Amino acid sequence: MRALLQRVTQASVTVEGAVIGQIGPGLLIFVCAMPDDTTATADALAAKIAKLRLFKDDAGKMNLSLAKTAGSALVVSQFTLAADTSRGTRPGFSYAAKPDVAETRYLHFAQSLRTLGIPVETGKFGADMSVALTNDGPVTIWLDTDN
Fold first, then answer.
1. What is the dihedral of CA 83, 66, 106, 89, to 10 degrees?
2. Domains identified in the chain and CATH numbers
3. Which terminus of the chain, N or C, has less C-beta within 10 A?
4. What tens digit of pLDDT does each residue of 59-79 get?
5. Out of 80, 115, 134, 140, which one is annotated catalytic?
6. Which residues contact 99 (CB under 8 A, 6 or more apart)?
7. Quick check: is 93 catalytic?
């Protein structure tokens, strides 16, 4: 799986003019399932993200995890994280998991974060979404379970 994390002071996702998910301080997580990903892959990624120390402690150092700050996560499916730009000028997306598998992994990933005690809001898989955020820092981290 691939994930792009953005530390935010707030974030929301809108579909067809209606806000369907929103959080205050926490992480906006764009996630993309790859063909070989399993539920175990999703669980491992969720556990890593919950423990990553991306939030400031009292001394201003990034020493606190999402779990330690009682922050929330807004999880948005993002198949374009699998973009192949190696040829030409039009990205290819054949490296992303097929939609039925990708949706299952995406939903499992969100549930895995919930199981770890993280409050989670989500986007709508396959929808045309509008995402708004206020990046905090900015802090933006790329994760790939293949690395």
1. -10
2. 2-21+35-144 (3.50.80.10)
3. C
4. 999 999 999 999 999 999 999
5. 80
6. 126
7. no
